[in-house]
Amino acid sequence: GNSVTQMEGPVTLSEEAFLTINCTYTATGYPSLFWYVQYPGEGLQLLLKATKADDKGSNKGFEATYRKETTSFHLEKGSVQVSDSAVYFCALLPGGNTPLVFGKGTRLSVIA
Amino acid sequence: DARVTQTPRHKVTEMGQEVTMRCQPILGHNTVFWYRQTMMQGLELLAYFRNRAPLDDSGMPKDRFSAEMPDATLATLKIQPSEPRDSAVYFCASGPGQGGNTIYFGEGSWLTVV
Q1: Kindly report the CA angle at A109 between A104 and B2, in degrees rounded to 5?
Q2: CB of A78 closer than 8 Å to CB of A61
Q3: Which of residues 30-89 of B touch A (CB under 8 A)?
């Protein structure tokens, strides 16, 4: 079946620290991969995506590379800000008529 | 700026009452999803529609929940009767239905059943 596993949170970092949130997946076929971000009191927003192997998605300083050989899509940012504090969800879209499959989310807190 | 619109944003109701949540998907999107978010379970898919037809509602408690799309611009999620364990944030999302395309979420309906 299709599933997403992401690292347990919460993650607490100081401002300007390097961020990695691990995400691995299990899927049949060739899924598209996504990172969504949820700020407090808001809905989920697309952060970045990659639709095929070796693609790199990037946005707002965040990056993630679709690694088929390790079935991973780790989220990275070189220097986090307090405003990056949020919950981050890794997700895969198996294709066809099946909906997005989400990981459980990782809460990030960045302190000044 | 196209977006998914959900109403109500916040709802407090008493146990046993009927609750209806509404969603207006992005114009032109033919796939609509209902998700529920709780601290314990995270994000759960309740139901989804394509071209207004229900494709899967296996995530929904059938005895009290129902989801419909009366037309292409409106999706509804109804709980009758509501129970305290239904307290959660309910998200509607829509997408263009093509592989690899982005799903867009509404701001959510924050439901508290007392």
Answers
A1: 65
A2: yes
A3: 31, 33, 42-43, 45, 48, 50, 55-56
CA–CA separation, A35 and B8 (whole Å): 27
State the pLDDT at residue A98: 74
Q: Determine the pLDDT at residue A96.
A: 65
**Is there a cis peptide before residue B96, judged by omega within 30 degrees of 0?**
no
Task: Determine contact, residues B78/B69, Cβ cutoff 8 Å.
Answer: no
**Cβ contacts of residue B98 below 8 Å, gap of 6+?**
none
Question: CA nearest B11: which of B92, B106, B114?
Answer: B114
CB contact under 8 A, B48 and A99: yes
Residue that has been written with the tokens 């079935």 in this structure? A71
What's the pLDDT tens digit per position in B27-45?
A: 999 999 999 999 888 899 9
Which residue, chain included where needed, has tokens 């007392």? B114
